[in-house]
Predict the 3D structure of the following.
Amino acid sequence: MKKCVLIFMSLVFLLSGCGIIAEKPEVTPAPEAESQFVFTRENFPVVEGGAALEPLAESVASVMLGESRESVADLLDFGNTGQSYENLMAGRCGLVLAAEPSQAVMELMVSDSPCALAPIARDGLVFFVSQSNPVDNLTVDEILKIYTGKYDSWSDVSGDDVPIKAFTRGEWSGSRAAMDNLVMSGAEFAAPAADASESVFDGSEGAIGYSLYHYADIMRMAGDYKILTVEGVRPSNETIASGEYPLVANYCAAISAEAEEDSPERILWAWLQGAEGQKFVALQGYVPAQ
């Protein structure tokens, strides 16, 4: 079978020109091979995924196609993790970059529409509250009791006597999948999930919400809210990479298990897992899986 490789097409120029990296990185040379696979707009796979990985997808498409991040935006569809996995299983997209799916979705990806799933990065599930809330830290058990309704006042966790207003996300959200996998473990949420038209955090005195660290902190989506420590550990790229932070989830790349070995989606899927792809993931500010 013909060997295929990916080439960093003027990596430093493209990325620094788009404002993705602040300093010039060491360029990883492309390995020698019998032939080279060249991505074009015509063969680039339809890529979908969760909002937290949209910057990574834009950077990958920009480098592989030799275009600006703005010009490749029309090739990507990001924002709804669950819908992306559903579209992959239905054959409506070729590659998904998103948080690891919930157990229920994972089972569908194995039984109904077999998919190949591989971790490409790691992130932390983080919790945030209003700056006026005196609570700075929660244990995993306290988080579970808050979201199952066993704790209904911040005084239960050494805070003020203020009712807890726990916000959760829809079942197809990537951070909801991480919450299900890492904290709830089959337990029922006390409060219903927010739908697409509702806020997932209102910033009120008793509110608590959750997200993935890269989305909440690096992409500044948590606004001026306070991100809590968990088990006394502050989330950061360093504590997530080391495993010191207790709630670590995977970002994954997924393709159909039936994708041809020389198909663009499988080539890109494999590259993201390899040494060059993992270095590229790190250059974009994510914690690589390896």
